[in-house]
Amino acid sequence: MDFKTLMRSGKQTGDHAISFHVPDSWMQGRTTYGGLTAALCLEAAMPTSGERPIRSAQIAFVGPVSGDVECTATLLREGKNTVFTSVRMIGETGVAAEAIFAFGAHRESSLNFAHLPAPEVTAPDETASFFGDSPKRPAFTRNFNIRLAKGKPPMSGAADADMSLWMRHKDGAVAPDALSVLALADAPPPAALTMLTGPARISSMTWMTEFLTDDIQTQEGWFLARHVADTSKDGYNSQAMTLWNMSGQPIMIGRQTIAVFA
Questions:
Q1: What is the C-alpha separation between 142 and 134, in angstroms, rounded?
Q2: pTM for the full model?
Q3: What is the CATH number of the domain that holds 78?
Q4: What is the mean pLDDT of residues 226-230?
């Protein structure tokens, strides 16, 4: 099931509550791909936004997500310009995720800058596929086109953990908006895996993202992501990410906490 069809399959189960069935094609090991978990939570929160654009998302991946899930949104506060909404996702084994979304209306401001230059990389059509034909790639990655534009692949014993990738939904009908970008942005494996020389089990714990524009657009669906691991200690990894469109305009920044069993 492609992303667009999955998002449309949700069924209202109450006030600001919506249920989904996550197919195996969106799994990452024993749990649902984190970007999809975040997008499902955002879908439940959207009706509370008063049509204000999303400005930030904070997601805690509490437990495994699979099969039937229900997302229930709670409006925490609505002001003149901003809305704060929490979402709890309940899965087959209990609480699966908790999220808080902040929505904010556009305001004119004397400050207008972005010191986030995109890295110099090859164009998408000149860049090799990240996964190639590997049969061992996680199931959910088959919903995306991902190409390694800079840095080393996982388990290559790289000297540092810094990689840049071109990414887009494989379903060409997916329009670039907050939902589709949130679902896409978490697709790369943690950057720290590039420094390892063998397989390792990982698990995302928390993910924080900030949307830098309410005008999300790009060419041919492509976005450029750079993921950099800043620290890794005591089995926990902290990484930063930035997402640009094809024109080099920054779309999103984020941070992620990852448990590394290696």
A1: 11
A2: 0.93
A3: 2.40.160.210
A4: 95
